[in-house]
Write a structure and sequence with these properties.
2 strands, single chain, mainly alpha
Length: 322
């Protein structure tokens, strides 16, 4: 990621600029755009559905492999639809492009923090806890973005209600795009309700871990510790706190230097500066992706063949665990 709130508020912040490229004239189109800003993240939550969890590796594949081909496939999938469905699908793909830009720009920064924390010599905190540390960092940044951008906390801005919009028609339309993109980019056939089920699972999980007062979060954390024998429960790391602060311990507002773990490049960029960098790229990127002339060569130039983590990835690279 970045996490759910940062992606949602990023999309809200650029939506008026995007309307210079796409009209986004209906509520469904605007919802599709905001839902697109969550990218493939909902797919990770398919693990809670016994019948659909076999498709959850699609989330990893989309984040890790063939980013240029994925964007082309999403764009093609939208253009194959007609009328109202096409308008909704193109809005979704525009939002999906925002997700890619934000992820690939900010993720090296988050992974740098993750590496440093997991190698700080704290007992029980090592690379095996990397995913939970990653989630903790992004949750803290999420809380800061929410308060900085809206002056609110999760007591007022409930993620499961506010950050995953989309009617049944919107979800059905995006299902069709995902079916096409999975086949075109990865050669895999997925269920025709994969995306819509994933969004409903994501909403359910975010509702379950919603704990503005903290009691439910601590209870769920205790249960997870007992069940998994881990010191760092994932549910706790994902559960937002009611924190009225516009800063984060991880935002690097002091501009200390950090190292991109994938390229070795050093930077003094802050989290806030990286958000601005990604926002500045949105309009030209969306204009390309929704164009009927968008092809693999253009997508490769747009992405620099960096995946969602910001890691250099071959155009036709392997799919990893899938």
């Amino acid at each position: 990621m970045p996490a759910i709130l940062t992606h949602d508020l990023f999309a809200r912040g650029v939506i008026d600029d995007v309307r210079s490229v796409l009209p986004l004239s209906t509520d469904d189109e605007r919802d599709a755009f905001r839902l697109g800003s969550q990218g493939p993240d909902p797919l990770f939550f398919l693990v809670i559905d016994p019948l659909m969890r076999r498709h959850s590796p699609l989330g990893d594949a989309m984040h890790e492999a063939r980013p240029a081909l994925l964007l082309v496939s999403m764009s093609e999938g939208a253009t194959r639809l007609q009328g109202r469905e096409q308008a909704i699908a193109r809005a979704y793909v525009a939002g999906f492009t925002c997700h890619y830009l934000l992820d690939s720009t900010v993720h090296p920064f988050v992974f740098a923090w993750q590496h440093d924390l997991c190698n700080a010599g704290v007992e029980g905190l090592d690379d095996s806890a990397g995913g939970r540390v990653h989630a903790e960092i992004e949750r803290d940044l999420d809380e800061a973005v929410l308060f900085a951008r809206r002056g609110e906390t999760i007591r007022d801005y409930r993620p499961f209600e506010r950050s995953l919009p989309g009617s049944a028609e919107v979800l059905r339309t995006i299902d069709r795009v995902y079916f096409y993109a999975a086949l075109r980019a990865y050669g895999e056939t997925v269920d025709t309700m994969t995306f819509s089920t994933a969004v409903r699972c994501y909403r359910a999980v975010m509702g379950l871990i919603y704990s503005p007062g903290g009691r439910r979060r601590h209870a769920l954390g205790s249960l997870e510790r007992l069940a998994t024998r881990t010191h760092y429960p994932l549910g706790v790391a994902l559960s937002h706190r009611c924190r009225p602060e516009a800063t984060s311990d991880f935002d690097n507002r002091s501009h200390a230097r950090w190292t991109d773990p994938f390229t070795g490049a050093t930077s003094a960029a802050s989290f806030w500066g990286l958000l601005d960098d990604a926002a500045a790229r949105v309009v030209p990127a969306v204009e390309q992706v929704v164009s009927p002339r968008f092809d693999a060569a253009a997508a490769s130039r747009l992405t620099g063949d960096l995946n969602f983590s910001g890691e250099p990835t071959p155009l036709d690279g392997p799919l990893g665990a899938w």
